[in-house]
Input
Amino acid sequence: FNVNTSTTFPLRSKEMAHDYRYFPEPDLPPIVIDNQMINEVKTAMPPLPNELSGQYQKLGLSSYDIGVLIEEKEVAFYFNELTEHTQNYKAAANWMLGPVKSQLNKTATNIVNFPLRPLQLAKIIRLVDDEKISFSVAAQQLFPASLEQSHVEPEQLAQSMNLLLQKNSDEELLT
Output
C-alpha cells in the first residue's frame, strides 16, 4: 500500500512463485466414482426434508403440520409408516401433533422409544373414524391404556375397558 497515492500494488506474482504451484499429493490414491456408485448412494439415502414436505403437501397437510412433522427425521419416518396403515392423513397428523407429541414431551423420550407402533395408532384412528369410539375418549383413555399395554390390540382394549359406543335400533349412539 502506497500511503502517498492511496493505492495498492503487488510485491510479487504468486503464479510464478514455486511455493504456490500445484502438484498432486503423492500419498493419496485417485478416487474413481462411477454413475452406478452415485445411484446406489441416492437409493440408500432417506428422503430429505424438502422431499417429505412435498409428499405431505400432496396429502393435504397444512404448512404448520408439515413443519412439525419434518422437524425430526424419526418423527417423519414414524408418520410415513403411519400413513401406510391409514388413509386419514389429517387425523394421523393431528394424533402425531397432539397426543403423541404430548406423551413424548411428558416422558422426555424420543419417538424411537415410543411403545405404540404406527399400526396400533392407525387402529385407534380407525376406531374413531368408524365411530366406534369418540376422539376425546380415545385420546384420554384408550391411548394412555394402549401405551401401557402395547401388546393388546386397541379394539380389544377398548372393549375390555367398555369404551366402545353401542348403537340401538334407532341408530342413536349409546355409551
Summary: The longest strand covers residues 166-167. The longest helix spans residues 89-107. The chain has a mean pLDDT of 88.
